[in-house]
Amino acid sequence: MDWTALWLSLRLAALTVCILLPLGIVLGRWLAYRDFTGKGVAEAVIALPLVLPPTVFGYYLLVAFGAASPIGQVWQAVFGHQLVFTFEGLLVASVIFNLPFAIQPMQRGFEAIPREVREAAACCGMPPWRAILRVELPLAWPGIVTAMILSFAHTLGEFGIVLMVGGSIPGETKTIAISIYDRVQAFDDAAAAQMSALLLALSLTAIALTFAVSRRIGRRFG
Amino acid sequence: MGIPMVATGRRWLTVGLGVAILLLALAAGAGRATAEVPVIAAASDLQFALEEIAARFRTDTGQDVKLSFGSSGNFARQIRQGAPFEMFLSADETYVLELARDGFTRGDGDLYAIGRIVLIVPHGSPLQADGLLDDLAAALEDGRLTRFAIANPEHAPYGKRAEEALRHKGIWEAIESRLVLGENVSQAAQFATSANAQGGLIAYSLALSPKVSALGTYALVPEEWHSPLLQRMVLLKGAGPVAERFYAYVQQPAARTVFRRYGFVLPGEEPIN
């Protein structure tokens, strides 16, 4: 068992969720309540990582953030090290790639709140921020929890992008998925089997939790 | 209905806050990994030999290196993109010399080993491990061969040499449609020894490792059949003292013994056949 890689993956997944939580709430709520021209395009852009092959995404990331790119050079000047082949680079990639997994369930969560509930809150004189905190967030919470679980699990399993922009550096970019790949190539089937089983168990737990949470929403509003 | 709903919501909020705190605690452990341990990029044919050398280095010096294995061509590309490796052991000196020419390295580096390729066939394969590839050619004719593994010739030196050997034998065109390409030579070895392929051309150093040799039989392909696998290593710009020390260690007798045991011919030494 490659504990360094597992810890790295857990950290990556946790940080991704921490960044996506506020981002998803703001964007998900905005998409749920606002109608505007180009909404379809915005939703398509957010959903793109669902259909885009990870290697394509990894390739663009390498081009956009690599040493030769303007973004890469600015990053290098500010932070003194590269963005690609670092943990930060993986985190940026992971946040972008998880956008649909975070935003879509949150958007559904906000959409599921009956309009009358929000109107009632407004009629009672609740200030908007208080209505968000006391009424909307608690009601949309199952969607938010689902989003967090999905993003977390999805980050643990991500392989293509990490392979493209990670460089398999132990303790920095070698995630559990890459470590499994490496162990197979080292003919270390026992370790590969162990880690795969752990990842399977984690994914299964995540999906089971997601379904449990969704069922709660269904029971409440169905 | 409003009040019970909000109450349920509150409970979710508490659960959610708990989850968020847990995540933050996990995330707090982030930050940059220990930078003092140098990361070393090494060709896949060194998978077993270099692990052993690094383990000895740890015992002898108390210092640690991190090894990353892959295809030499990929590493060369990653180094150009700014990958933070401190030392690069390539399976083909061309990659090192090109990096040196473009200013990514400290000097031209040193030749550390010369590699060989072998034909490996897994137990139960209809092929024979015949280094002159006569049985392979026959198997292509009589349809015994369905899948044959080599590393990707586009960016893996051992793949390139495998292609050269197959061309030398005059069976490249015939075999091309039956090839499975490994991303690097370890993966090719993985494919070649699985029951899904009837064999493959891989690194001698991998075939000699106990893990791989348990899976099949192998035979050396004549070295005149392909251009020599001159393996060169180099320190990259930004290499620290530990990487420098490891670089010197790889040239010491203890390391050379390990390389020799894995079938590498060492620069300045005659091959033992």
UniProtKB/TrEMBL annotation, chain A:
User: Chief subcellular site?
Assistant: membrane
Q: Which domain of life is it from?
A: Bacteria
Q: Where are the transmembrane segments?
A: 12-32, 44-67, 79-99, 139-165, 191-213
GO molecular function annotation: molybdate ion transmembrane transporter activity
Q: Which GO terms describe its cellular component?
A: plasma membrane
Q: Where is the ABC transmembrane type-1 domain?
A: 6-213
Q: Which PROSITE patterns match?
A: ABC_TM1
The places in or outside the cell where this protein is found are: Cell inner membrane; Cell membrane
Topology in the lipid bilayer is annotated as: Multi-pass membrane protein
UniProt keyword list: Cell inner membrane, Cell membrane, Membrane, Molybdenum, Transmembrane, Transmembrane helix, Transport
Q: May I ask which residue range the UniProt record assigns to the signal sequence?
A: none
Classification via NCBIfam families: modB_ABC
UniProt record similarity statement = Belongs to the binding-protein-dependent transport system permease family. CysTW subfamily.
Q: What job does the chain carry out?
A: Part of the binding-protein-dependent transport system for molybdenum; probably responsible for the translocation of the substrate across the membrane.
- This protein is called what? Molybdenum transport system permease
Automatic annotation (TrEMBL), chain B:
Give GO MF terms, alphabetically.
Answer: metal ion binding; molybdate ion binding; tungstate binding
GO BP term, pick one? molybdate ion transport
Ligand binding (molybdate): S72, V185
Q: Does the keyword Metal-binding apply?
A: yes
CDD domains in the cross-refs: PBP2_AvModA
InterPro entries for this protein: AvModA-like_subst-bd, ModA, ModA/WtpA
Q: Which residues form a coiled coil?
A: none
Record keywords, A-Z: Metal-binding, Molybdenum, Signal
Q: Which PANTHER family match?
A: MOLYBDATE-BINDING PERIPLASMIC PROTEIN, TUNGSTATE_MOLYBDATE_CHROMATE-BINDING PROTEIN MODA
* Self-association state and partner proteins as the record states: The complex is composed of two ATP-binding proteins (ModC), two transmembrane proteins (ModB) and a solute-binding protein (ModA).
NCBIfam families membership: modA (TIGR01256)
Instruction: State the family named in the UniProt similarity comment for this chain.
Output: Belongs to the bacterial solute-binding protein ModA family.
Q: How is this protein named in the record?
A: Molybdate transport system substrate-binding protein
